[in-house]
Write a structure and sequence with these properties.
By secondary structure, the protein is α+β, with helices and mostly antiparallel strands. The protein has seven helices and 18 strands. Strands 1, 2, 3, 4, 5, 6, 7, 8 and 18 form a nine-stranded antiparallel sheet that branches. Strands 9-10-11-12-15-16 form a six-stranded mixed barrel. The longest helix is centred in the first third of the chain and has 14 residues.
Length: 344
Amino acid sequence: MMYMDAKDIDYYSLGFEYIETKTMFVSDYNDGKWDEGKLVPFGKFEISPAACVLNYGQGIFEGMKALRTKNGEKVLFRPKENAKRFNESASRMLMPNYDVSKFVDAVKDVVRANEEYIPPYDSAGALYLRPLMIGNGPIVGVKPAKSYKFIIFAIPVGPYFPEGFRGIDLEITKKYTRAAPGGTGATKTCCNYAGSMLAGKEAKEKGFAQVIFLDAVHMEFIEEVGAANFFAVINGTLATPKTTGTILPGITRKSILELASKKMGIKIEERDISYKELFENSCSEAFCAGTAAVITPIKSIVLEDKKRIFSEGEPGEITRKIYELLVGIQRLDIDDEFGWVVKI
C-alpha cells in the first residue's frame, strides 16, 4: 500500500482529513489473552463478514495527539487518561481491557515510527493518533465476540474546525438527541458517532459548523457539541454539563476545569445547563473543547427563531486565557506543573 511521503505534505494548510502514514500497531486477543502486539506497515487486514463489529457495532476508539515543542521534542498529553478511558469503554461494551502501560508504550512506538509526519511546532497541526478496538470474531446472535483486534494508527491533521481559534456558529437541535440515560453516551464507541452524523450534516447544510445536542429526557439541558464538550461562562462562573452517563468524560474537559480552578482562580460548576441560559445576558462566553477541537470559541447559537451572538468571531477573555494555558502546557511553552505532558 502506498503512503504519502512526509516531505510532500503542506503542514501549514492541513485540514482534519485522512492522510495515510507508514506504520501502525496491531495486537490480537484470542483464547482469553492479548498477544505482545507489533508494528506493521499501515495497511488492510481481513475480517469475517460475521464479525461482531460489523453486525452489532462492538467497537471503541480514542483520539490523541502527538505534538512538537519549540525545541523539537515529541510529546503526548495525558496518555494514561486515554488508556483508562479506553478500558472504561471496553468494559461497557463487554470487550477485554488492555494494559495501561502497554497502551502508552504502543502509542509511543507508533509516534516514533511516524515521527516525520508530526507537523512543525509553528503550524496548527498535530499527529493525530487513533487507538481502536474491534470485536472481529464472528458472531451470530447478540453477544460479545471471542476475539478482538487492537490497532493504533496515525495521521497528520490541522484544526478540526476550519475556523481554527475563531468563533463558530452552532444550532441547537430539538429534532435529534445523542444519548439517553442508561445508554452508551459516556462510552467512546463507534455506535454513538454514526447516530450523530445526520444532525451534523443537516446543520452544516444550513451554514452552521455543528449542532448542540440537548438531553433526551427534558429536551432542555445542554449535552455536547457534536463530538466535543460544551462550556459557558455564566455570571463569571465556568459551567459545563455534568458527567452522569450521557456525555463523554473528556480529557480536555477535565484539564480545562483544573486549569480554570487552580491557575485562573475561576469558580467552576459541573451542572445541568438549560439552553435558555445561553440566551440571557448572564452568559457572556461559550466554547467547545476536545482532543480534536482543542478549544473552539462559539460565535453564535441559534434555536429556531432565536439567535444569541457572543462575538464577531474573536474569543472571549476567559476562553482565550484557558486556550493559551492549555496549548502552552501541551507544547511545553508553559511549565507543566501538573505532570500532564509525556515526552517520547
